[in-house]
Write a structure and sequence with these properties.
Radius of gyration: 22 Å
Distance between the termini: 69 Å
GO molecular function, one term: ligase activity
Domain GS beta-grasp: 15-100
Protein name: Glutamine synthetase family protein
Domain GS catalytic: 107-445
Structural class: alpha+beta
Shape: globular
Cofactor: Mg(2+)
Largest sheet: 10 strands, mixed
Number of helices: 14
Number of strands: 18
Helix content: 25-40%
C-alpha cells in the first residue's frame, strides 16, 4: 500500500494534477465527491478527510455524524474528460468512524464485508455487467414524453449517428481510466445503448460501474445529449437492465465448472443458482430499487418476470450461458433482473449472499425452464412452480421486511435505511394522480 501511495503522490506531481476528487456513494447509490488540493493527499491517506455523514443519504444518524473518508490509492486515475485544463484525478474512498472503525452504512464496506465472508470459505467473486441506458435529446420532455436521439434498433449500425460517436468516445474514455470494455452496441429501443464491462472482481466492478455512469453522463453533456439509466423511461420501448454474469473462483479454478456435468455446471454452481432463485424476491428492493424498476420487470421485452432458470433461456431469471469448449474458466451464470439504476455495492453483496446461502445450506436446484416462460399461462407457470417476482415496489418491500438474509448482509443500519427510503418512495408514488387515470376516468365518471 505504501508503494501505491508513493506512486499516487509521484503521478500527481509529474502530471501537474491540480485537484483530486475523493469519491464515495450514499446508500441509494448516488456518487458523492469532495475535491482536495494535491498538498492534502498525503494527509488524507494517513488521517482521512472529515465530513458530516448525516448530510449524506443514509450514511449516518445525526447523533453520530462525524465520519472520515480515506482514499484507496489503488483506485487512482486521472479524469480524461477534464483534458489539460486543471488536470483532475479521482480515488474511491473507504468511510470510517473517528475511532477508525469501518462505517456500517458505507455501501463499499458492505460489499467488502460480504466478499470477506466468501473469502473465509475460499471463494473469490467475479462479475461482468451488461449496462443498458438511453440517450435522449435532452432531459426535458413534453406530452409525447422523452425524445430519443435516434430511431435505430438492436445492433443497428448508424453511420454518422449520435450513438455510434457516443459509444466510441465513451469506450475510449473508459479504457483511459483503466476500465476494460468487452462489447458496445445499439440496443433494441430507439436511442438505447449497451456497453459491457469485462470480468473483474466484484469490488472493482462496482467501482467501475460508478465510474461508468459518470463517464456516460460526461460524454453525453460533451455531445449535447442526455443519458439516463432510468429502468423504464418509455412505456412502449424496452427497459434498461444490467444483466450481470457471476462466477466464484477457488484460487485459480472456476468453482462453477465441472467437465462432464450437465452444461459443465458444478454442484457448487447449481447450489449458487438455487440460492439466487430462493432469495430473489427478498433482494428485489435492492436489485430493483425504484417504483419505475417494476415497470421494466413487468413490461415484457425480455425482462424477467418469473423465478426460474434455464440454459440459454432469455425468458428465465437466471440463465446459464452456452458453454465454450475448452474454456472452463468462463463458466458462469447470468442474473437478469438487476437494472442499471441499482447501487452496485449493495446489489452485488446480496447476489453473493443469496448464492452463498444456497451453497452453505445445500439448496436443491429445481428443474430448468425449457419453454418461453412468458408464453405460458398463469396456471401452467403455477404448475411448474415458477413464482412471480414482485409486481411493484411495495411487494418488494414486504419481502425484504421478512428477510433475515438481507438484514444480515446489509447490516441493521443500511437495512433499516433502505426500507425507510423505499417506503417513503412508495407513499409518494401512491398519492399521485397519473395521466392514465385522468384519461381513463375523468370524463366518464
Amino acid at each position: 500500500m505504501d508503494k501505491q501511495r508513493d506512486f499516487v503522490l509521484r503521478t500527481i506531481e509529474e502530471r501537474g494534477v491540480k485537484f483530486v476528487r475523493l469519491w464515495f456513494t450514499d446508500v441509494v447509490g448516488t456518487l458523492k465527491s469532495v475535491a482536495i488540493a494535491p498538498a492534502e493527499v498525503e494527509g488524507a491517506f494517513t488521517e482521512g478527510i472529515g465530513f458530516d455523514g448525516s448530510a449524506i443519504e443514509g450514511l449516518s444518524r445525526t447523533f453520530e455524524s462525524d465520519l472520515l473518508a480515506f482514499p484507496d490509492p489503488t483506485t487512482f486515475q486521472t479524469l480524461p474528460w477534464r483534458g489539460d485544463v486543471d488536470p483532475t484525478a479521482r480515488m474511491f474512498c473507504d468511510i470510517t468512524t473517528p475511532d477508525g472503525e469501518p462505517a456500517v452504512a458505507d455501501p463499499r464496506n458492505v460489499l467488502k464485508r460480504t466478499l470477506a465472508r466468501a473469502a473465509d470459505r475460499g471463494f473469490t467473486f467475479y462479475t461482468h455487467p451488461e449496462i443498458e441506458f438511453y440517450l435522449l435529446k435532452s432531459s426535458k420532455y413534453g406530452p409525447e414524453g422523452p425524445q430519443p436521439v435516434d430511431s435505430a434498433g438492436y445492433f443497428d449500425n448508424v453511420p454518422g449517428g449520435t450513438a455510434h460517436d457516443f459509444r466510441r468516445r465513451s469506450v475510449r474514455m473508459l479504457e483511459d481510466l483503466g476500465i476494460s470494455v468487452e462489447f458496445s452496441h445499439h440496443e433494441a429501443g430507439p436511442g438505447q445503448n449497451e456497453i459491457d464491462l469485462r470480468y473483474a472482481d466484484a469490488l472493482t466492478t462496482a467501482d467501475n460501474i460508478m465510474t461508468f455512469r459518470t463517464v456516460v453522463k460526461e460524454v453525453a453533456i460533451e455531445q449535447g445529449v442526455y443519458a439516463t439509466f432510468m429502468p423504464k423511461p418509455f412505456s412502449h420501448y424496452p427497459g434498461s437492465g444490467m444483466h450481470t454474469h457471476l462466477s466464484l473462483f477457488e484460487g485459480d479454478a472456476n468453482a462453477f465448472y465441472e467437465p462432464g456435468a450437465q452444461y459443465q455446471l458444478s454442484k457448487i454452481g447449481r447450489q449458487f443458482i438455487a440460492g439466487l432463485l430462493r432469495h430473489a424476491n427478498e433482494i428485489s428492493a435492492v436489485t430493483n430499487q425504484f417504483v419505475n424498476s417494476y415497470k421494466r420487470l413487468w413490461g415484457g421485452d425480455e425482462a424477467p418476470s418469473f423465478i426460474c432458470w434455464g440454459h440459454n433461456n432469455r425468458s428465465a431469471l437466471v440463465r446459464v450461458p452456452l458453454y465454450k469448449p475448452n474454456k472452463g474458466q468462463s463458466a458462469r451464470v447470468e442474473y437478469r433482473a438487476i437494472d442499471s439504476a441499482a447501487n452496485p455495492y449493495l446489489a452485488f453483496s446480496l447476489l453473493l449472499a443469496a448464492g452463498m446461502k444456497g451453497i452453505e445450506e445445500g439448496y436443491e436446484l429445481p428443474p430448468e425452464a425449457e419453454d418461453d416462460v412468458w408464453a405460458l399461462t398463469d396456471s401452467e407457470r403455477r404448475a411448474l412452480g415458477y413464482r412471480p417476482l414482485p409486481a411493484s415496489l411495495d411487494h418488494a418491500i414486504e419481502y425484504m421486511e421478512e428477510s433475515e438474509l438481507v438484514a444480515d448482509t446489509l447490516g441493521e443500519h443500511v437495512y433499516n435505511y433502505v426500507l425507510a427510503n423505499k417506503r417513503a418512495e412508495w407513499r409518494d408514488y401512491r398519492t399521485q394522480v397519473t395521466p392514465f387515470e385522468l384519461q381513463r376516468n375523468l370524463e366518464i365518471l
